[in-house]
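Weekly puzzle thread! Below is a chain. First person to post its structure in token form gets bragging rights.
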Amino acid sequence: MTTRRSFLGRTTAAGVLAGLTASPAAGEDGRGSPAVDDPDVRRTRAREAIVAVNSGMRSHYAALKADLIARLGPVLVVQNDAKGGRFTLVHEGTRESLHPVGEVFELAKSVAHAPLGVFTIIAPHLSDRIPNVPGADRIDAHDLAMLVSRGTTTTDWITPLRQYADTLAAARRHLDQAGIPPELAASCARVLDGALGFVKVSTEARSFDIRSFEDFSRSVYAGIRTAMRHAAEAQITGVQGVLRTWRARIGEEAWRDLYTVVLSQWATSELNQNSIIIRPCMNPAKAATHLIDLPAAEPPSDPVLVALDNLARIVQDNIAAELVFPTDHASADALKGPQDLLADEILDQLGAPAPDSSAHVTPDGDGHGACPVTRGGTAPRRHGAAYDV
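Winning reply:
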């Protein structure tokens, strides 16, 4: 059996031999001729030789990761989507994928999103002035100015808003035949009727503003909350059900080591709904490190591959961290987790407080905050358990 020591020994010897045979002799440029007697050339070659150390590491790191991906398991991969999430169990070379959440989830959320649908059409035509409305101080003036691109004088919003109203009206007409709980149907009706009313008034007046939209959204809020409750109930029931099934299938011993990777967009990566449901169903001793929320800019085309690729890196870093930093547990934790290895050193040199504290700033000539100023002392160090979510 190949032991870690013998494997490393052979790898090191092979690397040294390759380096000796590939490197040009001293004083030569690699083609057998004397090196150019130019300080800039020598410096460039020296730096390239040094950078090659990291390039070689990355190459072997990728090879190790690719080999590890095939042996990962059991792994639960969750791709958040409009149906409540696509769940894939990877175990012993097999994969099973399904959508475990009932259709009520998607139906309830679809109607609850109606006010947001209206907003996305009218948003470019809002005024950049914030009226005196509740929560006005919570609207960032610069954000609003960037969003409103077409001004209040144009009316090219009317046609797309009426077209969206046709979609809302069709949902309203068929609501009674959808087979959803009566309470949910009634709340959906209130939301759809409110949205249709806003469209009718706005298009006839050929005008709207932040205040009129807020009046509409406030009037349907209770219906939205009811829809959210039904969606949550459907999601909990579906996710817990499939987890019980898969847990029984692979057995308690395998389940204790289960990794879960939840892929989502940034907007739902913290306190993700699926992560909340899954966590209590995992081994409590490992949930903090084995439940991984992985935000992405856009849904990946192959979520399982993305999840396994990231998980392979996490798994090999877990071991590498303890062996590369055997005497520095703080650095080992940083290598294991999402903290950059240079984070603490940069904080120390900047004399900066931890990210959740107010940074020390020196006002500039206009009285505005400037960059944090380097000052003496040691910044508070921030080391925590890897993958806390």
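Puzzle host: Confirmed. Bonus trivia for everyone else. Residues 245 and 251 are 10 Å apart (CA to CA).
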